[in-house]
Amino acid sequence: MNFELTREQKLTRQMIREFVNKEIKPLAAEIDKTEKFPLETIDKMRKSGIKGMSYPTEYGGSGSDYITYVLAVEEISKACASTACVYAVNTGLVASILLKFGTEQQKKKYVPELLNKGNKIGAFALTEPNAGSDASAQQTTAVDKGDYYLLNGTKTFITNAEYADTFIVMAMTDKSKGVKGISAFIVEKDMEGFEIGKIEEKCGVRASSTGELILSNVKVPKENLLGNLGEGFKIAMTGLDGGRISIAAQGLGLAEAALHEAIEYTKKRKQFGKPISMNQGIQWEIAECATKIEAARGLVYKAAWLKQEGFPFSKEAAMAKLYATELAMEVANKALQMHGGYGYIKEYPIERIFRDAKITSIYEGTSEIQKIVIARQILK
Ligand code: CAA
């Protein structure tokens, strides 16, 4: 057993840290306020090779391993959870699904531009107004019209909606078959009848765009069917298994950021004649948070390692997401409390970290869904 990162992973993490401190961290507070994601960041991530982390160079990737990608999500999340959200959905979810289930032609056409060869962004469209946690209750339909499929329906809460070029859309091709009647399609933003609807104003990860997709008689060419007919639910679930490791890494990064802010603040803040970090009440909280962060790191890296090495990882991904994202909120809450009134104003980063942390235990499957996934695998 080896708990050390490799020399290459450490060096790449150092490069990512420098990139994050220069290009991402300085913008975090401002883009949270304006709710506008700076697309130049995507171009910079591409040029530095971060956009294509964990993918082969043949498809526009950086040739790095999956753990390095997870380190990138963690580092970016420490500075700006919105940027991590855009990145994780594009690189960790959409590109991964396309590479795993796409035909050679689909992979060549779509993947490189989502990675280091272009500035395109991907989105994953599963959720609907009536299909949230119950993802199988898809109402969007896709009807076979010979040369093309005709897609109709509405997707909601879709990350990257406003900025994405390539969408993986789940739709019902045969209602009578239930889950096995769901298929996956690659939809391009310029296809006729495809529109972006309402963009949500959110509590956290405000610079990442979350919106509605409206599909009105969208003609999707036959060659844009992803995987086999009826395989859409499996494709979505397989993709989310990996996506959940990304969100776990986001939770880990946010928890680390919150603890960092708490340490910085409590060492400086003097009350009753001494820094408040000298109080045992604060010390015990800091010790507990630091210990739980180490536990979360173990779960996140283990799940990433299992995926990287080709072992089953669905249960471990769900465990990592459950623990790390609940922890993000716990540490953010405690860190904000340690700041007192200063934690509640926008002058200190903990206010944003606290708001950003909340979403991690909701998207890509709520904590309750993670418990279902874990329990089913334990009890089966
Ligand atoms: N991998 C492969 N196949 C899987 C799978 C997995 N992880 N999980 C389920 N399946 C297969 C099952 O094997 C089954 O097929 P068979 O009958 O052939 O065995 C089929 O899918 C149906 O499985 P279930 O009976 O388990 O399905 P269910 O309806 O009970 O749902 C669920 C299971 C885990 C609750 C699922 O609905 C779920 O994950 N819900 C949460 C949805 C979610 O995470 N949404 C996030 C939206 S995306 C997002 O947030 C991204 C973003 O933009 C940030």
TrEMBL record:
Its EC number is 1.3.8.1. The keyword tRNA-binding does not apply. GO terms for molecular function: flavin adenine dinucleotide binding; short-chain fatty acyl-CoA dehydrogenase activity. It comes from the Bacteria. Keywords: FAD, Flavoprotein, Oxidoreductase. Residues 123-218 form the Acyl-CoA oxidase/dehydrogenase middle domain. This is Butyryl-CoA dehydrogenase.
